[in-house]
Every structure is written in structure tokens, then in C-alpha cells.
Design brief:
The complex is a heterodimer of chains A (84) and B (571).
Chain A (H helix, E strand, L loop, with lengths): L13 H24 L14 H24 E2 L7
Chain B lengths: L7 H12 L2 H20 L4 E8 L2 E8 L1 H20 L6 H18 L4 H20 L4 H32 L14 H16 L7 H6 L5 H22 L4 H20 L3 H22 L2 H32 L15 H14 L6 H15 L3 H27 L13 H19 L5 H4 L11 H23 L10 E2 L3 H40 L1 E2 L4 E2 L9 H21 L1
Antiparallel strand pairs in B: 1-2, 4-5
Classes of the chains: A mainly alpha (84), B mainly alpha (571).
Chain lengths: 84, 571
């Protein structure tokens, strides 16, 4: 509606995004640090690995995206594929 | 307390919506689910109504904790969906929506398989109008495919229950299980697959990803709430503890997230994540312990609310901008800030952030998997949990409301849509923060579980934050697959492309052969006619076509008489 607000978006400013990402990285770091201070309950052997959930989450998602990108090569068709 | 049959208030609401218009219709539609829920509170456990049909005892309405939990859920879901749809000036959608909700309630209170079958088919017949109400060619053909597959599910259920009625001499819907002797085995498997189709089992899941994104914005909210959850209920009652369900469920939890990552239509992304969430529930039912079953139904309860919320926010985006593809959206947080916040609440709930509803139910299933020694399943579910955050938790809000600015400027959706979304968002937070007073209080099996301890909160936060870190990292490295206008092939390719192509080919070959045979027959007949007529002389050709003088005939008659005479004497 108000075009004059176009560049006013908080997320449009790179410095804001950078600030937010910094906070995010700090939280990630803290979560790993806390892992060494808190005595976690262990239900499964793998959980003995330090920061297991962090590592698993990160690697899992990277693998997910890489496989999905690879799948695109075989599965992707035009938008109107079924309508033709 | 006097109670009426559970599905009656919603059904009467649907009937009223046919005739009433304006504010009166709106009022009745809001009041129907509220009265229905109050009616449920007054019901005692046990058989509410029974009758006999062709020598079989039927229990069309039977009440216990499991059916009550789904009953409350469906009334809450229909209330939210009705409020969301209030601004729509379309009688078809209003009537179909409430009738569909009534069918779902009828199905979960069905005490026998025949009643279940009737409501099972009614679910299909009432809901398809929510797809057709979009009034596009795509929606029409998608609705036809939806109806065929849904009715097929009902037919499998019908054949299965007929076999069961013959073998067991009973139609009551209790635990069915897969271990039987002889023909009962076939019956059990038919019912299993009938349920499985509605539950969107792998390779039978495409009716869902095909039709839900084609329905109207408000129609999808109804659709996402009922059909699959009725199937989850049916599995919880009919097949708890069947180990095959664990493996089917874990497949459902994992494979759709790959499709969700590369899908462009954001409502289709949510449809894939719907299958992923049902996967968690099916694993829980397959494990079959009290905590696992409780986790499955608790997660079904929460999923309806948070998936409904996410669908509603995307419906609002579609309603306001006319677009839903990730490739065409972005930067909407400026013009739709409230919707953005509500979407993030839904995203946090589906991703199982602490204090949001997914956290208190998903973890029950995970804990049950570890406790029962399903190590691989547990690891895969953990992967699926990280993956669901990746596509539903980050991708949906990011590509719709943030990412690069698409230049679209719009406003917040109509007030009733915002109210419905806010209701769902509040429910997500309340269910996640006070589980013991809300969803846990309704759980059917006896079991105590405490979701909030330091270990669980910490590990879950690690999982989520580092999944997000992966997203940030991949985006910065430009390795994240961009949103592209595209169609991705899935199992529906087999019946939407391959089968029609084969049928077309066979048909055209057959037709071609028929045409060439027909042509050659016509040709040879023509040639015969032509060859037997002398056009120059203007008369037919050949010995027998000649004009003979009368004397010739007299000679022949004389010969014939002589031959006759000879035979006469010889005899």
C-alpha cells in the first residue's frame, strides 16, 4: 500500500541482518558450551558424543539439502507439465 | 445430562447453512461446533446407541476416551476453520466444510465397521466440493482424482469388513490386527490398505499433495484437519502395535521432506510436511506402548492446530496476493506483519520448539522409540525432526515473508482470518506450555510423562539451532536450492502420465488396426462391385449376369425334368 516504506523494512538493511546473525551465532555457541556443563540424561549410546544433537542437526540438514538438490536434476519438470 | 448424537450439531449447522444467509448463517456456523463440544462433555463412556441390521449388532455411536479426544479435536478444528471461512460468500464451501466436519466426528464415534464405512465415504463426498469450489480446471481434475482414490479406499474397507463379518460374525470395530487365519487375513489387509490410503502411506500419498494445494484457501484448512486424522484414529483403534507400521511411519516421516525442500508451491510444501507429521504418529501407533500411543494421538491433536495455522497463514497470503509460489513471493513481512508473526508461531510449533505444542507430543514418540530399542528409527525420526524445521519451520516463513523483496504490497487479511489464526496460535502456545492441563488430560492411555527437563530442552534447542545454522550456511554459500517455477515428479506420475500414455498408446494402436481392417474390407467390397460391372456397356459383367434368351431356359428346364425322371426310375 505505502510504497514510500519500501526501503524501511528492518530486514532490508544488511547491517540489521548481520547483527541478527551475530546474536544467532552466539546462541549456537552458548548451546554447545552448556552441553559440557549440564549433566545430560543419556538414553542412547550416541548421545555420549559431545554436542551430538548439534552435530546431527547440522549434518542432517546439509545432507538433506544436497540430496534434494540432486533430486531436482531428475524430478524437475516445467510448471505446466501435467497440463500439457 | 441429556446428550444428542455427537455429529448432529455440526450436521444441523451444515443444513442450516444451506438455507440461511448473512449474519444468521455466520452465527449458526460458529455456534454449531461450540454446542457440539459442550454436548460431548456431557456424554458418558459406553455404547450410546445400538441397533441390529441383518443379524449383526451395530453400534453407530460408541464413546470412549480415544474417540472423545478426536471428537474434541474435530470440534475445535471446525470452529477455527469456520471462523477463517466466514468472509467467504460461497454456500458450497460453508455447507461442505461443516458436513465434512460432521462426517469426521461421525467416523470417530462409529462403534462398528459398517458405520465407519458410511462416514468414511461421506468424508470423501463432502470434502471434494472444497476442492471444486476453487472453480479452476486444475482444481476440477484434481478433485476427480481425489474422489476416485478416496472412494477406492472406502471400497477396500467395505470388502474387508464384509469378509470380517462373514468370518467373525461380528461387525464391531475393535482391534483388528494383521495376524489371522485363512481368508480373514485378506480381510485384515484390505482394511489396513483402506486405512492406509486415507493415511497417505508412501506411494498412496499423492492424492494429498495433489488436491490440498488446489483447494480454496479456506477449503484447505478443513481438508488438512480431518481425513488423515480420522485414518490415524482408525489405525490407533484397529492396528496398535503392528510393527510394520513403525517402518511405514518412519518412511513417511523421512521421504516427504526431500520433496518439500524443492517444492515451489508453499501450500504443497505444507502438504508434504503433513505426510511427514503423520509419519511420526504412525510410528507411535506401530510401537504400540502406552506412551507411544499417547504420543501419536497427542501429536495428531497438536498437528491439526499447528498445521491448520500454517495452512491458514499461507491461505491468507494466497487470498491477499493471489500467489502462493515461493518464487513469486518474499518481503511480505512489511505489509502483513501480523500474519508473519502468526506464521512463525505455527513454524515454531511444528518444529517442536520448547513452549510450543509440537515439543510436548513429538518427544513422546521419540522417547518411546528409544525405550523400545528402535535405534535406527530413533535416528531417522531425529533426522526428520531436523528436516521438518528446515522446510516448514524456516522455508515457509522465509520465502513467503522475508527472502528477497518481491515488490508485492498488500494488507493484512480480513479480520475473521486473523481471529482464526490467532485462536490457533494461542492454542499452540497453551498446549505447548501447559500440556498437563490440556492435551495430556485428554490422553486415552494411562501414562505419565514430563516433557520439560533440562536435557530435553537443551538437546532440542541444539538440534533446531544447528539446523537453522545449516540453512544460514547453505544460503550464504549459495548452495540452497532456489525457488523455481516447477513441477516435481512424484508417485502420481505413474497414474497422471505413464498410465494415460500407455492407455493412449494401446487405444490408438487398437483403433488404428480396426480402421485399417475396416478400410481394406470396404475397399475389397468396392473392388468386387466395380469388377463385376462393365461401365462402358452399362451392364454387369460375368456369365450369370448376362441376359439369356428364353429358349435357353426352356432347354434347361427340359434337362432338369429328364434328370428328375432318371432319378425317379433309378430309385
Amino acid at each position: 500500500m505505502s510504497d514510500n516504506h519500501d526501503s524501511d523494512g528492518w530486514f532490508d538493511k544488511p547491517e540489521n541482518v548481520k547483527k541478527m546473525l551475530k546474536v544467532f551465532y552466539v546462541i549456537c555457541g552458548l548451546l554447545v558450551l552448556v552441553d559440557f556443563m549440564v549433566n545430560r540424561h543419556i538414553y542412547h549410546d550416541w548421545e555420549n558424543i559431545p554436542a551430538f544433537y548439534a552435530i546431527y542437526g547440522f549434518i542432517g540438514c546439509v545432507v538433506l539439502v544436497l540430496i534434494a538438490t540432486e533430486m531436482r536434476k531428475y524430478l524437475m519438470r516445467g510448471e505446466d507439465y501435467y497440463d500439457e | 445430562m441429556n446428550s444428542v448424537i455427537p455429529f448432529l450439531p455440526l450436521l444441523l449447522g451444515a443444513l442450516a447453512a444451506i438455507f440461511l444467509r448473512g449474519w444468521l448463517r455466520n452465527l449458526i456456523m460458529i455456534v454449531a461446533p461450540i454446542l457440539g463440544a459442550i454436548n460431548l462433555m456431557g456424554m458418558d463412556h459406553g455404547v450410546f446407541w445400538s441397533l441390529e441390521f441383518m443379524g449383526y449388532a451395530l453400534e453407530p455411536v460408541k464413546v470412549d476416551k480415544l474417540s472423545l479426544m478426536f471428537g474434541y479435536l474435530f470440534h475445535l478444528a471446525s470452529l477455527i476453520a469456520v471462523i477463517y471461512a466466514l468472509h467467504v460468500k460461497d454456500t458450497v464451501q460453508h455447507v461442505a466444510g461443516l458436513a465434512y466436519a460432521a462426517s469426521a466426528v461421525g467416523a470417530v464415534f462409529a462403534g462398528d465397521l459398517l458405520t465407519l464405512f458410511i462416514f468414511w465415504e461421506l468424508l470423501a463426498l463432502t470434502s471434494v466440493f472444497l476442492i471444486w469450489a476453487r472453480r479452476t480446471d486444475r482444481a476440477y481434475s484434481s478433485g476427480i482424482r481425489y474422489l476416485i482414490i478416496q472412494v477406492l479406499s472406502g471400497v477396500l474397507l467395505l470388502v474387508g469388513l464384509l469378509i470380517f463379518a462373514q468370518v467373525n460374525n461380528s461387525l464391531l470395530f475393535t482391534q483388528i490386527g494383521l495376524q489371522h487365519e485363512g481368508i480373514a487375513q485378506i480381510g485384515a489387509w484390505l482394511i489396513f490398505f483402506g486405512f492406509g490410503i486415507k493415511c497417505a502411506f508412501p506411494f498412496m500419498h499423492n492424492w494429498l499433495t495433489d488436491s490440498y494445494p488446489e483447494a480454496t484457501p479456506s477449503g484447505t484448512i478443513f481438508l488438512a484437519s480431518f481425513t488423515t486424522k480420522v485414518a490415524v484414529y482408525a489405525f490407533a483403534r484397529g492396528f496398535p502395535g503392528e510393527e510394520i507400521l513403525v517402518w511405514i511411519g518412519v518412511t513417511m516421516a523421512c521421504f516427504p521432506i526431500f520433496f518439500a525442500v524443492i517444492e515451489n508451491d508453499l501450500r504443497r510444501v505444507l502438504a508434504y510436511s503433513l505426510i511427514n507429521q503423520i509419519g511420526f504418529m504412525i510410528v507411535g501407533i506401530g510401537i504400540g506402548t502406552a506412551i507411544a500411543l499417547n504420543g501419536a494421538v497427542a501429536h495428531a491433536f497438536n498437528d491439526v492446530i499447528f498445521k491448520g495455522l500454517l495452512m491458514m497463514t499461507m491461505g491468507a497470503v494466497l487470498h491477499m496476493t493471489g500467489k502462493i509460489n515461493g518464487s513469486e513471493l518474499g518481503g511480505l513481512y512489511k505489509s502483513m506483519p501480523k500474519t508473519t508473526v502468526l506464521c512463525i508461531v505455527g513454524a515454531a510449533s511444528i518444529s517442536a520448539f520448547p513452549l510450543f505444542s509440537g515439543f510436548v507430543s513429538k518427544s513422546m514418540i521419540m522417547a518411546a522409540a528409544v525405550a523400545e530399542g528402535y535405534d535406527v528409527v530413533w535416528l531417522l525420526l531425529l533426522f526428520a525432526a531436523a528436516g521438518v524445521f528446515h522446510h516448514a519451520g524456516i522455508k515457509i516463513p522465509y520465502f513467503a515473508f522475508f527472502a528477497h523483496d518481491s515488490g508485492i504490497r498488500t494488507t493484512e487479511p480480513p479480520k475473521n482470518m486473523l481471529v482464526a489464526m490467532t485462536l490457533a496460535a494461542v492454542a499452540c502456545v497453551v498446549l505447548g506450555t501447559f500440556p498437563a492441563q490440556t492435551v495430556y488430560a485428554l490422553l486415552p492411555w494411562e501414562h505419565s510423562y514430563q516433557p520439560y527437563d533440562v536435557t530435553h530442552v537443551l538437546t532440542q534447542l541444539q538440534l533446531l539451532f544447528f539446523s537453522a545454522l545449516a540453512f544460514v550456511w547453505l544460503n550464504m554459500k549459495n548452495m540452497y536450492p532456489p525457488e523455481l517455477p516447477s513441477t516435481n515428479l512424484d508417485a502420481d506420475w505413474f497414474y497422471r502420465k505413464l498410465a494415460p500414455a500407455v492407455v493412449k498408446r494401446v487405444a490408438s494402436t487398437t483403433y488404428g488396426a480396426y480402421v485399417s481392417v475396416e478400410n481394406s474390407v470396404i475397399h475389397s467390397v468396392k473392388r468386387m462391385v466395380q469388377n463385376s460391372y462393365d461401365a462402358e456397356a452399362g451392364q454387369p459383367k460375368g456369365y450369370f449376369a448376362k441376359l439369356w434368351p428364353t429358349e435357353t431356359m426352356v432347354v434347361w428346364v427340359a434337362i432338369l425334368l429328364v434328370v428328375y425322371l432318371l432319378f425317379y426310375y433309378l430309385h
